[in-house]
Write a structure and sequence with these properties.
Blueprint: H1 2-20, H2 25-46, H3 71-102
Helix pairs in contact: 1-2, 2-3
Length: 115
């Protein structure tokens, strides 16, 4: 499963970089969001793709029984998703405001700040 995820993450990074190199500011933001999703998948995949029980220790035991899931990468990815949503919300407002002022989403037309 990990090799398939590695290929999928590689394609996501490639698509994100391709979109970020476009001239449209909308494509730039979509590429940025795709890049954050690829990074989240990379963190999640690097922790291991094994199914496991919650890391709870039964009463009277010193360690959990059997294979347990690591909660740290899940918490990091969850935090990153929340931050990425905040960045997306800010970027959408920024795009809307820039389009109202410049009347274009082309980054080459947004060079002048005196409009």
């Amino acid at each position: 499963m990990e090799p398939l995820m590695a290929v999928a993450i590689g394609f996501m990074y490639a698509a994100a970089i391709f979109l970020m190199l476009r001239r449209s500011i909308v494509k730039l933001v979509i590429g940025l969001m795709l890049l954050t999703n690829a990074a989240n998948l990379l963190i999640f995949t690097s922790a291991g793709m094994t199914r496991g029980a919650p890391p709870l220790i039964p009463k009277g035991m010193l360690a959990p029984e059997g294979v347990v899931a690591d909660p740290l990468p899940q918490a990091v990815v969850l935090t990153a998703i929340v931050i990425a949503f905040g960045v997306l919300a800010f970027a959408v407002v920024l795009i809307r405001r820039a389009y109202e002022i410049v009347k274009a989403d082309d980054l080459d037309k947004m060079k002048d700040t005196d409009t």
